[in-house]
Amino acid sequence: MIKKLKNYLSSEFVKNAGKIMTGTVLSQAIPIFAAPVLARLYAPADYGLLGLYMSVTSLISIFSTLQYTNAIIVATNDDEARSIMNLCMRLTTLFSALTLLLSFALHNIIAVLFKSDMLKYWLLAAPFSIFMGGLTGIFSNYALRTKQFGLVSRNRVYSTIGSTAVSLTVGFLTHHVVGLFAGLWVNQFINGLLLCTQSLKSTGDSWKTILSSGYAEVKNKYINFPKYSLPSDFLNNFINQIPVFMLNSFGSLGAIGSFNMSNRILGLPITFISSAFSEVFRQKAAEDYNAKGSCREIFMKTFKTLGITSILPFVILAIFGPQLFSFVLGAKWVEAGRFAQIMSLMYFFKFTISPLTYVYFVANKLKEDMILHIVFLLVSFLSFYLGYKLTNSIYYTLLFYAIGYSFIYVIYFVRSYKYCKNPDHVV
């Protein structure tokens, strides 16, 4: 037993996950320690406005590369990967420019749609967020492909330090929501800039090499990514934003801010551990699937590790959510604690299962993934909407939403495990 554990801890998978997790822990430790101060500098409504901005830009940014970025890791060789990167760079530049034009043309419609005059002005910065997000997606996938796990880890630390420092400084000086937005933009800028410069330096590539790579062939070869992965990822993102948009319709910016704060706290284990194992799992699963014909071993190893790790934090939040939030963040955040209490089970499933759904990409089951995301969207929307209409209580509404969300993740787990085996593999 001890020997097994020792071998597991010394495996390449755990070591690579550890590299990313180290950076993730350090990058998140900073905002965790800063959270009690930030929560007192900014009101729930400020976080609500930021949440609306992030929800809108994240939905739009899905289209910036048509999700060709997901093909960078699974490309058959490095030359092909560079061609995909070139295609993605051209797409994200074009889409960012288009977004700039639309943000000026439609800002009044945006104000009416989201019931916020302030949001329309902040969304003028959306092209910047979209471009830097596209850049980050391109080079983070390239870094994972080339096993530059340390680079990904360091980048998270630097961007978080910059973001937190700006939000704290501006918050102390102004107590204005501009501090939260400035922190977000600094994070996005550092993320994109460092990833692309350091990744190119580490691999010996150059902008000239990437931008001169032909992309016509890979555009057609990996057409399933925009065809199926794009709508799937959009639906997945939209599913995550449903509560924000619904709360904006039914409630207030304060409710959105409380919900986003609870999401942030509940998401900490995901950020700390799950995302680290996810990124390594993506690379290892693709490797085993192609070489061995099955990635079930790494699939179950990842699931067991995440399951054991996550039980205690989520149980504590399920029991003591309101008390913990009130104590750490201040009395005005007790509502966020109630939300966290209700959604703790949902986040347990998200934590343990979400990374494993990458099997759909590995097995090229993108069409089914898209269909499942449509079902996911319908279940999430209906559970949230019906919960509110039947109970007229935001707490029961979130409970309905959490149950529906958890049910879909269980289905994802069963189907992902099935597709871990490559039927076309020849021994």
Give the % helix. over 70%
Number of helical regions: 20
Whole-number radius of gyration? 21 Å
Kindly report how far apart the N and C termini lie.
31 Å
Q: What fraction of the residues are assigned to beta strands by DSSP?
A: under 5%
Q: Which structural class matches the secondary elements? A: mainly alpha
- Report the biggest beta sheet as strand number plus sense, adding barrel if it closes: none
Tally of domains: 2
Runs with pLDDT <50, length 5+?
none
Write the element-wise H/E pattern from the N-terminal end onward: HHHHHHHHHHHHHHHHHHHH
Strand tally is: 0
> How does the overall form come out from the CA principal axes?
globular
> Whole-number average pLDDT?
82
Keywords:
427 residues, mainly alpha, 20 helices
Describe, in plain words, how this protein is organized in 3D:
By secondary structure, this protein is mainly alpha-helical. It folds into two domains: 27-222, no CATH class; 224-422, no CATH class. The chain contains 20 helices and no strands. It has helices spanning 2-9, 12-41, 44-61, 71-74, 78-105, 107-113, 117-122, 126-145, 149-174, 178-203, 207-211, 216-221, 224-250, 253-266, 268-291, 296-329, 334-353, 359-362, 366-391, 394-418. α9 runs antiparallel to α10 (178-203), α13 runs parallel beside α19 and α19 packs antiparallel against α20. The chain is globular. The chain starts with a helix and ends in a 9-residue tail after the last helix. The relative contact order is 0.12.
